[in-house]
Write a structure and sequence with these properties.
Oligomer: single chain
Mean pLDDT: 82
Distance between the termini: 35 Å
Shape: extended
Strand order of the largest sheet: 1-2-3
Largest sheet: 3 strands, antiparallel
Helix content: under 10%
Radius of gyration: 14 Å
Order of helices and strands: EEE
């Protein structure tokens, strides 16, 4: 089953115009799962972040 949700509201081509990404639950009282910035992250217990490096040829 694929639970991927696509937002039609805003799909940036890159994150250079943003300072932080906040991941929350989609509930009446949202719970923050993660806050990600260029140099740090905060993560709720029971979740993980996987980083993908930039590969050069």
């Amino acid at each position: 089953m694929n639970n991927t949700k696509k937002s039609s509201k805003h799909n940036p081509e890159s994150l250079h115009d943003y300072t932080k990404v906040v991941v929350e639950t989609d509930t009446k009282n949202p719970v923050t799962i993660a806050e990600i910035t260029a140099d740090s992250w905060k993560l709720a217990d029971g979740y993980r972040i996987k980083l993908t490096p930039t590969y050069t040829d």
